[in-house]
Design brief:
There is one protein chain. By secondary structure, the chain is mainly alpha-helical. The protein has a single domain, classed as Up-down Bundle (Chorismate Mutase Domain, subunit A). Helices cover about 70% and strands about 0% of the residues. Helix 1 packs antiparallel against helix 4, helix 1 crosses helix 5 and helix 1 packs across helix 6. Bound molecules: prephenic acid. Prephenic acid binds next to helix 2, helix 3 and helix 4.
Length: about 170
């Protein structure tokens, strides 16, 4: 029985994957705060110069790691954040929502939360990258992500964020 199922990763590798998924979830948890700050300010969700700044920083910090892999991963985190933010904006638009009170400042309060996660994500990617080709690892990551990473908008942002680990 179950011969068709891929093998589960060993406990240490599974724990490393769970840790990365927790960090992905923590980063995605910041998106609603970003969305509120931008809703109040009227600023665009997409900020290519800010993305470029982060990509340049991670490329510099990630020596030894494949630059294409790291950049693809972070771009996927931006794209997941934007999908979540745009979904929230569409919801608030439809509800005729007004400005939110007590929203943290994007530059002073919110982006530092993302910046604090960046080196943790890079450290976790270092651990995970050599394990990604193990049989069963992709399957494990994708199924575990459903329990660990937030599920907004039918899981679209979650799927986008996790897909960034794989080339296709
Ligand atoms: O900092 C912002 O303005 C965000 O919206 C967050 C974020 C990110 O995930 O880091 C996502 C989309 C933007 O294009 C730039 C950066």
């Amino acid at each position: 029985a179950c011969q068709h199922l891929p093998p589960a990763p060993n406990p240490a590798d599974a724990a490393a994957a769970d840790h990365l998924l927790q960090l992905i979830d923590q980063r995605l948890d910041v998106a609603p705060m970003v969305a509120k700050a931008k809703w109040n300010s009227g600023g665009a969700v997409n900020d290519p110069p800010r993305e470029q700044l982060i990509l340049d920083a991670v490329t510099a910090q990630a020596s030894g790691l494949d630059a294409v892999f790291v950049r693809r991963f972070f771009q996927a985190q931006f794209d997941a954040s934007k999908a979540l933010q745009l979904g929230l904006h569409a919801q608030w638009q439809q509800q005729g929502a007004g400005k939110f009170s007590d929203v943290p400042d994007l530059g002073r309060d919110v982006r530092p939360l993302l910046d604090r996660l960046t080196p943790q994500l890079i450290a976790s990617l270092r651990q995970i990258q050599p394990l990604l080709a193990e049989p069963g690892m992709r399957n494990y990551i994708e199924s575990r992500s459903i329990s660990i990473v937030r599920a907004d908008f039918d899981g679209l942002p979650r799927r986008m964020a996790v897909a960034g680990l794989f080339a296709n």
